[in-house]
Design brief:
single chain; mainly beta; eight-stranded parallel sheet; 3 helices
Length: 300
């Protein structure tokens, strides 16, 4: 019996690449990898219900490419471009590096523990996706929409996601637990469905042009050894005891002003200070900050 052909097709069933099945090319994934290796034109590619784990897309033009119900774990997109639709897929541990996408639409997809770095993604729309523990590093993604997504433990470092929207119909706050934005630009964005600022951290960010629940007002106090951000309406203090880039895994202080004052008076029982910094170096400074914030607080 002759071997059958494994074909790489578009949505309209146009064959982009094909190979006879063999020991070397036993499945769809192996043929796809070969097509990428030989720089076959994959514009319009449509992949449905395939296991393509571990595929490395290098300098691939992904214009009008779509994936439906695929396992894409550990995929790497390196210096890719185009516009992509992804639905009902698994992108766990996938990576996007130095890529430029004009549009990405992702729906009902696992995106846990992804790494997205040094890339531009214009107008991305993510709906009902799980991004838990995903890292965005120096990504430009204006007008992004995160609708009904799990953003728990997601970190944005030096990203530009201005005029974006984070919206979720869930009443619980688990979906944005430990959501962090460090540096970058998120001006003009809508965060009104995030109601508990103890679960959130925005650091080295211009907070004036972001829409928060309840028209939140912030006071920022910066001194030689410390920086403190206080959300007046929510009574939440954000404080990083030493530069987070020295210890990225460190959880910042995010509690009420009273709890912050107690933390200082009790010699920082729950907070890791920078190893070279003694408690007394910042204690007096932070007590003065607390007194200033108490005078402004609505909860004292």
């Amino acid at each position: 019996m002759s071997n059958h052909k494994i074909q790489i097709k578009t949505k309209n069933q146009t064959v982009l690449y094909e190979l006879e099945s063999s020991e070397m090319f036993p499945d769809y994934s192996s043929v796809l990898k070969e097509a990428i290796t030989f720089n076959i034109n994959l514009k319009g590619l449509c992949v449905v219900a395939e296991n393509i784990d571990g595929v490395i897309w290098k300098e691939t033009d992904l214009s009008n490419v779509s994936f439906y119900n695929c396992s894409m774990k550990n995929n790497v997109f390196y210096k890719c471009k185009g516009n992509v639709w992804i639905t009902d897929c698994d992108l766990t541990n996938a990576k996007i590096k130095e890529s430029d996408f004009t549009d990405i639409h992702i729906e009902n997809t696992l995106m846990k523990k992804m790494s997205i770095r040094n890339s531009t993604i214009s107008n991305p729309m993510l709906m009902s996706c799980n991004l838990e523990k995903t890292i965005f590093w120096k990504v430009i993604m204006p007008n992004a929409a995160f609708w009904d997504c799990n953003l728990s433990h997601v970190n944005f470092y030096e990203c530009v996601i201005d005029f974006s929207q984070i919206s979720n119909k869930n009443n619980h706050d688990n979906w944005y637990q430990d959501l962090t934005f460090l540096g970058g630009d998120i001006s003009g964005s809508n965060f009104t469905t995030i109601k508990d600022l103890k679960q959130l951290l925005l650091w080295n960010i211009d907070l004036d042009n972001i829409e928060f629940f309840g028209n939140e007002e912030f006071t920022i106090v910066e001194n030689k050894n410390s920086k403190v951000i206080y959300a007046l309406n929510n009574d939440v203090v954000w404080w990083i005891p030493y530069p987070k880039d020295k210890n990225p895994s460190m959880i910042p202080f995010r509690h009420s002003l009273k709890e912050f004052y107690n933390e200082i008076q009790q010699e920082f029982p729950n907070t890791e200070l920078y190893p070279s910094m003694e408690d007394f170096v910042v204690k007096d400074e932070l007590i003065t900050v607390c007194e200033y914030l108490k005078a402004r607080s609505k909860y004292q």
